[in-house]
Amino acid sequence: MTARERFSEWTLRADPKVGVGHVGRCLICWEPCVDTPSADQARDWCLKHVDSTGHDSFTLTAEEFFDAILTDHPSVNGTSPT
Ligand SMILES: [Zn+2]
Description:
It comes from Streptomyces albospinus. The protein has one domain (19-77). It is elongated and about 65 Å long. The strands form two sheets. It has a two-stranded antiparallel sheet with strand order 1-4. By secondary structure, it is α+β, with helices and mostly antiparallel strands. The longest helix has 15 residues, at 39-53. The protein starts with 9 loop residues before the first strand and ends in a 5-residue tail after the last helix. The chain has helices at 39-53, 74-77, and strands at 10-14, 20-26, 58-64, 66-70. The chain is built from two helices and four strands. Bound molecules: zinc ion. Residues 26, 28-29, 31, 49, 53, 55 line the site of zinc ion.
């Protein structure tokens, strides 16, 4: 295979500085809780919200940030790129 025919291989790497964020959101008034690393904290906000408003329908979303990097990148395998 020539260099021209070679395909790049990519991998995804989670950004450890950001981590996973969780947001609970009321589906009645669309109010969200603060973005938190804890899913339990987001659920607790939903319970407090239903207690104070009577709104009883929610979503919980998790968001994680990734970088896409070449698998032959030195930060992945410790070798020099070819
Ligand atoms: Zn609400």
